[in-house]
Amino acid sequence: MSAFLPVRIAFMNLQTTTAISSVAEARAAMNGEWKNKNLHSYRQALRLLEEAQAGTCRQSVAFAAFVKAARDQDMVVSDQPSEALKRLDVLARSIYAQDRQLPRSV
After folding, report:
1. Beta strand segments in the chain, E
2. What is the pTM of this model?
């Protein structure tokens, strides 16, 4: 199971669009075709992803740095949940709403 909601990115060759949803996938994506691998946000994300894989950085911090680096280079195609996840969220809300209703008195 993925750790994060998928973020869809497009590499510079425009032929590859990838959904990234874990630190391992994000680290692998850093080897793809980026506009500028010398940009500070790219280097910071790479460092944090490596630290997260080593266990010395929180995965959420490293993944957020990856998304920022991709945004800085206009690579993010979509970071919105899929239609299936949106439907699941609606279903989950309705279930939890029923659980929170107060019992009726007789």
Report:
1. 7-10, 17-20, 76-78
2. 0.71
| CA angle centred on 64, ends 82 and 33, rounded to 5° | 80
Cα–Cα distance, 62 to 3 (Å, whole number) = 12
What are the pLDDT digits (tens) for 26-53?
A: 999 999 999 999 999 999 999 999 999 9
pLDDT averaged over the chain?
84
Helix axis angle, 59-72 relative to 40-54, nearest 10°? 160
Tokens of 3: 């750790």
Write down the residue that tokens 């949106």 correspond to.
86
Q: CA 39 from chain center: how many Å?
A: 20
| Domain coordinates in residue numbering, the chain | 7-80
**Chain centroid, CA 83 distance in Å:** 16
Helical residues (DSSP H) of the chain, grouped into ranges:
23-29, 40-54, 59-72, 83-100
Q: What is the pLDDT of residue 5?
A: 83
